[in-house]
Amino acid sequence: MDTAQTYFLLTILLPLLGGMFTYTIGGKKGINVAVAAMGGGFVMSLILLLSVIDQPWVIRWKWVPGIELGWNIDTTAAVLMSLVSFISLLVHLFSKHYMFGDKAIDRYYGKLGFFTFSMLGLLASDHFLLLFIFWELVGFSSFLLIGFWFDDIQKAQGARKAFMINRVADAGLLIGVILLVVELDVNFISELKEMPFSPMLQLAGFGLMIGAFGKSAQFPFFGWLPKAMAGPTPVSALIHAATMVAAGVYLLFRTQEILTPDVLAVTAFVGGLTALMAAIAALTQFDIKKVLAYSTISQLGYMVMGVGVGAYESSLFHLWTHAFFKAGLFLTAGAVIHYYHHAHHHCHRFDAQDMRNMGGLRKILPVTFIAFLINGMALSGLPFFSGFLSKEGILSGALIWAVGHGNAVGYLVVVMAFVTAALTPFYIGRQILLVFFGESRTVNKPVEGMEPIFSVKLTLLILAVASIWIFSALNPFDGHGWWLGNLLFDDHVMPDTSHQFLLHVTMALSVILVISGLALSYRKYKPDSAVVLRFKTKQRPKGLLGKLSFNAWYIEDIYEKISDGFLNISKTSFQIDKKIIDRSIDLFGVSTVVFAKAMAIVDREIVDGLVNFAAWVSRTIGNAYTKVHAARVQNQLLWLVLFIIVIVLWLQF
Amino acid sequence: MSSWLIIGFTLVIVVPILYMIFTSNIIRAAYAFTLSLLGLAAIYVLLKAELMAVVQIMIYAGGVVVLLIFGIMLTRRQKGMELVTLHRDVALGAGFCMILYALFVSWIGESGLAFTEELVELNQVKTIGISFLTNHILSFEIIAFLLLVALVGAAFLAKKTDSI
Amino acid sequence: MVTFLFFLPFLLGFVVIGVYAERKVAGFIQNRLGPMEVGPVGLLQTIADLLKMLQKEDLRPRAIDQVLFLVAPILIFGSIFTGFAVIPANQEFSGSEISAGVFFLLAIVSLDVLGILMAGWGSNNKYALYGAMRSAAQIVSYEIPLGLSVLAVVMVNQSLDLQEISFLQGMSGKYSSYFLGIPALEVSELGGFLTWNVFTMPVLWIVFIVYFVASLAESNRTPFDLPESESELIGGYHTEYSGFRWGVFMLSEYAMMLLTAILAVILFFGSWNTPFPNMGGFLLAEWTSGPVWGVFWLISKSIVLVFIQMVIRWTYPRLRVDQLMSLSWKYLTPLAILMLFVVGIWKLWLL
Amino acid sequence: MEITLTYYLMLSAFLLCAGLLIVLIKKNAVFVLLGIELMLNAANLNLVAFSKFDPSLDGQIFAIFSVVVAAAEAAIALAILLNIYKTYKSSDLDDLDTLNY
User: Fold this and answer.
1) Between 3.40.366.10, 3.40.50.1970, 1.10.10.10, 1.10.287.3510, what CATH number should domain D8-91 receive?
2) ipTM of the complex
3) Quick check: B37 contacting D, CB < 8 Å?
4) Which residues 72-101 of chain D have a CB within 8 Å of chain B?
5) pTM to 2 decimals?
6) What residues does each domain of chain C span?
7) What φ, ψ does residue A49 adopt, rounded to 5°?
């Protein structure tokens, strides 16, 4: 085993082993083991990153005769692996506080380790089959995590739904993988190259796209992500921020060389559409985590769109920045929820995630507030924050793409992207205002000293600081200035200078949109405004658009209808089967039996009769003959003696 | 003296056999058979075949007849019914056997096998024992094996289960 | 004829004394006195019982098979008594001179099975038949270890003639005898107990135990008396007999005891030879040998064995039928075969 | 009266014929077995009688063998008989006619 394999195995196995150890041993010490192992895994991933900068590592091994599987760790994979390890480490740390006192905390850490292992394996796998295996492992371990509180039946059902929707999309991935491996003989991701167009390739591309959509919660499949909020909040941070949902984007990014233009176009369009729809849905949510969930979907839409329009390096950049600020947002939301849980621990029916109950947390949780604010600004795309940089790249890429193609769909995508860019600051501003400003709408006497302990604060602050522009690029206005970009994408990062004008237009437009969005949200949701006051009565949004947004375009109801439809179809076909097909078969059977009865009579009376007659004849003859040589031993002996005498006499005389 | 003894023991043989032929009581027939066997043993003694006589008593009278009586008792023990057997084809059988006996007698008369000289005394047990283990060792072993196989087979056949 | 004249009266006397002795032994073992009323210390008790028995009515149930019923006791006693014909009483008188003597004895004694079956069948009584069947099965089974153990002795002495076996255990044998089978310890001149079979061939002690157990079973004594177990079969094959005929059965039982004891003495304990060896100037062996001494030694040694039989009868409980059969077939027979083998090897290689 | 070999041969022939007669005319299987034993004894008598005039005593040896075989035969025959009795509830040879039909 050479160094590469050792580093790699340590990186992916340490989290798993730590988690398993915790699960086996249990107790507080075990948790420390899991966290320590995760830390070790993170360090190992950094070492791995440093060692693959010059030369990617490709590890192949024979699986069954004729099939080779393999790992491929290039800089992209290594960067993302260290990102995942980092976020996971932070989540481990945060959970120590957040999950404190849960009776199944050892199981929680076991699942966390398992999930981290699956995700790292997914990032590192080179062969499509291996990728699929880890893809499924990720889905399964996320199911375990989401359904962590499985004794609450609602949460268990949420986990099941999330898992099932994933499975539906995974069918697309499976089709794509099988087509690639079997029909096109494309086995290894690291060996992908441009291929001539063929219908099979197109089909495979669509398959991969559907799989990616499922994992990244794109348009038809995005219903599962809000459902996944049933899990513990740190899990939401882990799943939504950096890891599982990024898998789809990562897949598209990796396979974009073989994706056909049609697939890319559909990808771009669906990405834009998802971004817009999810942003609209996020506008009216009251659940603090649901807002973030829809925002995640919206941001993922951006990334998918970025891949679709060819700005994949910006997509990856956005994936990177989004990982930090979204994880930060979720963890701060977790801190808020934690606070409300403890403030209202005497009241069981209280919904600790409902923003209508919140307000005024700015003074009670100052650190949390600052972290949330910075991360929120990054999300909304304000300059000097990381989000601005990466989103800038995607928007400009979309504009360049639309201009380059010049068709209506392209411009539609651009419009959707920009509208989303305006909606994002609106809903995040609304959230900040509702949660942190004004006065508390339920708790009259603020509970002091609820600021989280140091390790949690550290976690939040690390994530917040990482969202400042300086940690992503030196120039706060250069969307392509990611200092990891040169490392990852060689030199073709800079777009053509001919599009310099478009870049400036994009930048100006987005800054205007962001600021106006923020202003609008302040105007509408500023403390003591009419809308905010109405929340005390817990109203729901009215009007068509409001309902559409609050129910997330009724996408889940559509799922329900579809499944009901399938049920009805199957019931109907069951009835048809039973009433018509079975009847006719029964009829055929009965007629056969009747015919057979008739034949039996013929057989018995005529055919058997002949045989019986023959038997009777021979028996009669036999009976007659039996009298002669009766079957009695002594009679036969008598005959024997007689013949002995006769023979003796004959010899004698 | 010796001749009269022989004739006396001949009667001990013949009379029970005649009784066996005419009786229908199996148990009594078996005991009559035993008596004739003892008579035969006596004849053997008079023929200077002491070992043969003892073997006759030991195996026939002590073994085979006990087995036969056991067989009779086992087959008829349930009911208190009379232990009788019927005769069949008496005339035919008797006729044939008489003819056969007549033929035998006529042959024996014709054959002239009438040795009278007698051998010197010798230790019969020793002679026979040495013969068993020298000239007739193969037959001896085979007969021993046959006996073993027959007894095992008989035990297997007669055991209670019906799985034959 | 001499057998008839000597053993028949002796046997009758022995039975009278034996029954009395048995009662006294039972009393001794059960810590009581036994018969005390008739005569001094109850010496005449058996005589009185005998007189009573002889006066009894000769009962014959109607449903019996007359011939078999009447012949059975005679056959039993006859066969056992015939066994005495080959017993040598002393140096002078060697019984019937049959070269296959011990073999003949075993053969003729095995005929009493027929008598027992006859009695059981002839009585036409369920219990009698069960007793007879059990007894026959038992006797036939135990004949095998008995015969094998006798065969071991026959191998040691290389003769079937009881008189020759007797001579070989004294000072006047054909061959030299060695104490414990070791050639260095020649004791042919010393005589006495040193030349007995059990001492010249110590393995025969085990053979003797096999023989003794089998002989107990042969004579239907406790602990092998289940053919006539009173509590289960109300007397077994002699249920229907009474009076003198019953007395004959009793006589046969005691005769069988005595016969097996005498045979044991002849085969293992030096027959009519004296137990005292010549010791230097004290020629004890020669002083205590002679025709009269021979009869005395034979009878006295036999009576010691009979006494042991009685003690065993009053000490051990009765065996079950399956235990009885498994004792014979699973333990005694294999042990006897093994001993036969050991004795053969000893005889071939050591002597 | 001189007893010669002829006498024994006649006796033996009688035994044989008597055994044959019993085999032929008795219905009970045990009886038939008795008859067979009788016939075997006839043969033994012949052998022993002849061996009286033979120093090697082979006749006696053969007779002993035949006695042993007779014992084995009786054991087997009785076992078969018991089985037949168990199956047919009869030891009458004429009842054993299953193969007749």
Assistant:
1) 1.10.287.3510
2) 0.67
3) yes
4) 72-76, 78-83, 85-86, 91-92, 94
5) 0.52
6) 1-55, 67-350
7) -60, -45
